[in-house]
């Protein structure tokens, strides 16, 4: 396996991503954790030193342990990683004054190098390659054994290498989208490190099952099932590893979509024979939400009740020592990297993050190393139905945040029906998989309409459908007018209580995906 030492670059995850695409197994660890002992246990076949916001000339700037260079394995330093390697091996890095380079730059080769093979050639090659630079400091004197293999206008040492020891350094970021052929460099690096690209989901499944058994032993594990992809895949994987030592608790807050609670419970019971407590707590949740219209208050109430209910059921099972969570790789990285500056809370996303401290349980997180699409691939590997795996994301607080203003049972019933018609339309037109997320929000206004010969005074609703890659930014989905017209007609005809349908064409930013 390959070790990525993280110095806090915003794009370190993308390095992992590129390597996974090459079927190479890698792990990112923050530099603070990479001690000589850690290195010995990890026994990497190759090491990548990431970029980062620090400045090598500063006395207290972060360093990897010197032992990294004694492992007799290839080392690749990216940006800050290159500079720190150069400094530690006897070169010199100076603070950039007038030599900073940010954004697009072009790199030209100065002599052949195994790492650069196939990079500058090819039919469309112009003899130089576009890359993405983001550096203030730069290397000004190479360490012994290193030579320059490519340059850019602002970085005379764009690519350097000590070919005897297989140490490589690049001043740019080959992992980002704006270094279009950058993946080739990672491919060359892992090939020369001896990786054969045999890391697959089937392999991961086996490996994860062994690791879960080792960690858990004969103890009992409890898992909160939400009906979402992550917790479902985690539960099925755990069940395969430890069978009935696992109990899942499905906290049904009564804010799920039409038929969803029963569907989820049935799927796990019928297909997986998984020990499942279906905690139907609609009364409790809706009772506490009565009269509440502030979005953040809704989230806080739901989050707290969720923990209370889960804990009540967990306490009733004797000898539980572990809590399983479907934590994904991006969540892990976000919590270790130091991107600097406090960020503003736009919405306090409700999740089960507060559970472990409160309950004194140890954590099992079998998806910690996976990206979202890898979780889906693992789900397929485990035999979860494709329609289940491809489901749009659904927020923890459920329909509560699709019902701006006060939540009432009447509004929830109308919302469920309208949402079901809308999703049915999207599926019938074959659009479901092109859309990241689609739903209906019921608006807290009644408007006047006319149906038959009578006046109506019913709720208005808004349809939402967005495209996105990660939910961080989004654009509205460009339905045809025919589709929208047909859907509006169906909703008004089939859903009593709605007499007006609108389509939300706000992107994110400035809007958010959900209405609250
Ligand atoms: P926003 O509305 O913030 O949504 O643009 C981005 C993504 O996050 C989901 N979302 C939530 N998920 N708890 C969750 O678990 C929440 O409180 C929450 N709020 C929004 C939203 O559905 C979208 O996928």
Automatic annotation (TrEMBL):
Q: How does it assemble?
A: Homodimer.
PROSITE patterns for this protein: GATASE_TYPE_1, GMPS_ATP_PPASE
Q: Which residues bind ATP?
A: 226-232
Question: Which Pfam family would be a valid example here?
Answer: GMP_synt_C
Task: Establish whether keyword Calcium is in the entry.
Answer: no
Q: Which GO terms describe its molecular function?
A: ATP binding; GMP synthase activity
NCBIfam families (alphabetical): guaA_Cterm (TIGR00884), guaA_Nterm (TIGR00888), PRK00074.1 (NF000848)
Per the UniProt record, the lineage of the source organism begins with: Bacteria, Pseudomonadati, Pseudomonadota, Alphaproteobacteria, Rhodobacterales
Q: List UniProt keywords, sorted A-Z.
A: ATP-binding, Glutamine amidotransferase, GMP biosynthesis, Ligase, Nucleotide-binding, Purine biosynthesis
What this protein is called in its record is GMP synthase [glutamine-hydrolyzing]
Superkingdom in the source lineage: Bacteria
Q: Which gene encodes it?
A: guaA
> Which InterPro entries is this protein grouped with?
Class_I_gatase-like (IPR029062), GATASE (IPR017926), GMP_synth_C (IPR001674), GMP_synth_GATase (IPR004739), GMP_synthase (IPR022955), GMPS_ATP_PPase_dom (IPR025777), Rossmann-like_a/b/a_fold (IPR014729)
Origin species, per record, is: Jannaschia helgolandensis
């Amino acid at each position: 396996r390959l070790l990525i030492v993280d110095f806090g670059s915003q794009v370190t995850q993308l390095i992992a991503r590129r390597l996974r695409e090459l079927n190479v197994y890698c792990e990112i660890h923050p530099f603070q954790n990479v001690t000589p002992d850690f290195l010995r246990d990890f026994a990497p076949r190759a090491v990548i030193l990431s970029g980062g916001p620090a400045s090598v000339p500063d006395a207290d700037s972060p360093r990897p342990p010197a032992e990294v260079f004694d492992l007799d394995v290839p080392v690749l330093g990216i940006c800050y990683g290159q500079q720190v390697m150069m400094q530690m091996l006897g070169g010199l890095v100076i603070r950039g004054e007038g030599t900073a380079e940010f954004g697009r730059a072009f790199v030209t080769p100065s002599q052949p190098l195994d790492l650069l093979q196939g990079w500058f050639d090819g039919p469309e090659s112009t003899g130089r390659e576009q890359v993405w630079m983001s550096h203030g400091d730069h290397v000004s004197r190479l360490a012994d054994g290193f030579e320059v293999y490519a340059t850019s206008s602002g970085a005379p040492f764009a690519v350097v290498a000590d070919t005897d020891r297989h140490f490589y350094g690049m001043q740019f970021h080959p992992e980002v989208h704006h270094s279009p052929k950058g993946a080739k460099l990672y491919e060359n690096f892992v090939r020369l490190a001896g990786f054969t690209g045999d890391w697959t989901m089937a392999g991961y499944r086996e490996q994860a099952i062994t690791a879960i058994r080792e960690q858990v032993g004969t103890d009992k594990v409890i898992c909160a099932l939400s009906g979402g992809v992550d917790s479902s895949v985690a539960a099925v994987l755990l069940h395969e590893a430890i069978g009935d030592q696992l109990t899942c608790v499905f906290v049904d807050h009564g804010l799920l979509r039409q038929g969803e609670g029963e569907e989820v419970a049935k799927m796990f019971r019928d297909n997986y024979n998984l020990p499942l407590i279906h905690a139907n707590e609609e009364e409790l949740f809706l009772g506490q939400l009565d009269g509440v219209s502030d979005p953040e208050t809704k989230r806080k109430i739901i989050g707290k009740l969720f923990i209370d209910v889960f804990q009540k059921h967990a306490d009733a099972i004797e000898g539980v020592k572990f809590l399983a969570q479907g934590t994904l790789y991006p969540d892990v990285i976000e919590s270790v990297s130091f991107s600097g500056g406090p960020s503003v809370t736009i919405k306090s996303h409700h999740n089960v993050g507060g559970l472990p401290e409160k309950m004194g349980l140890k954590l099992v997180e079998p998806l910690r190393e996976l990206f979202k699409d890898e979780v889906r691939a693992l789900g397929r590997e485990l035999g979860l139905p494709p329609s289940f795996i491809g489901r749009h994301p659904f927020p923890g607080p459920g329909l509560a945040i699709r019902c701006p203003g006060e939540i009432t049972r009447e509004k929830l019933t109308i919302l469920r029906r309208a949402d079901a018609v809308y999703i049915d339309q999207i599926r019938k037109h074959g659009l479901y998989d092109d859309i990241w997320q689609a739903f209906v929000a019921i608006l807290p206004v009644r408007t006047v309409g006319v149906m038959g010969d009578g006046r109506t005074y019913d709720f208005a609703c808004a349809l939402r459908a967005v495209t996105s890659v990660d939910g961080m930014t989004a654009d509205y989905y460009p339905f045809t007018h025919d589709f929208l017209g047909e859907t509006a007609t169906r909703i008004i005809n089939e859903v009593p209580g709605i007499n007006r349908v609108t389509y939300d064409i706000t992107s994110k930013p400035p809007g958010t995906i959900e209405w609250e």
